[in-house]
Write a structure and sequence with these properties.
Ubiquitin-like (UB roll); alpha+beta; 3 strands; single chain; 2 helices; TF_Znf; Zf-TFIIB domain-containing protein; 109 residues; three-stranded antiparallel sheet
């Protein structure tokens, strides 16, 4: 099969029951309509899964305790949420983290 974009050879991969064609030249991913429906179905199943229950603490160990509240900030210290700088005080990388979606996990190598 040839890539519709750059005409290089295409390779077919089977990931979680979904056939994906990937171009060896431009690395593009191509799906047919049935495969796209399969991906959306798997994505909805992935997001509806409940997290596993927390196992009970082993006998003989105390139950986990919450950390104590942090002390009040000193006078003149920045308030919570004011980290200073233009980029949120996290090295200029935004400071937020998003869990990987099913699609991201499917297409990662």
């Amino acid at each position: 099969m040839q890539c519709p974009k750059c005409h290089a050879a295409m390779h077919t991969y089977n990931r979680n029951g979904v056939q994906i064609e990937q171009c060896s030249g431009c690395r593009g991913i191509f799906l047919d309509y049935g495969e796209l429906e399969s991906l959306t179905r798997l994505e909805s199943q992935w997001t509806q899964q409940a997290p596993p229950p927390v196992p009970p603490a082993p006998q003989g160990y105390p139950a986990p305790q919450a950390y104590p509240a942090p002390p009040a900030p000193a006078w003149g210290a920045p308030q919570q949420g004011q980290h200073g700088g233009h980029y949120g005080g996290h090295g200029g990388h935004g400071g937020h983290h998003k869990n990987k979606s099913f699609g991201r996990m499917l297409f990662s190598s």
